[in-house]
Amino acid sequence: MSRLVKLTDSQYEMLCDWLETHDIQLDRHTRNQFRDALAIARVIERMHPEVVALHSYKPRTGVARLIDNWQIFNARVLTKLNMGITRLDMQQLATGNEDALESLLYGLMVADYSLLKR
């Protein structure tokens, strides 16, 4: 069962505000880049370099290879943030499912705020 669900309108607005503070615009190009966990890892690394080791990822194309990066990101980052995802979630992210991406980014936003409080 997927852990990534469609955001409410208020959650989506909060996400857009957070993305704007980090100079990220969720346009078609960015959504396509975010199919690869490497792009998400780069965003998190900019905010919290202690959480992500970019050398673990290789730029990928093709759904199977994109899922490989999502497995690494899930094991090394998301589980540490208590937001591990399922194989189905990885498939949805690798194929560019907008709801899955927005849900993941929302979870990362919440994790970002809690890391800042430490």
UniProtKB/TrEMBL annotation:
InterPro entries xref list: CH_2, CH_dom_sf
UniProt entry keywords in alphabetical sequence: Cell projection, Cilium, Flagellum
One Gene Ontology cellular component annotation held by this UniProt entry: cytoplasm
UniProt domain CH-like: residue ranges: 15-109
One family name in Pfam for this protein: CH_2
Superkingdom per UniProt: Eukaryota
Protein name, entry field: Sperm flagellar protein 1-like
Organism: Drosophila madeirensis
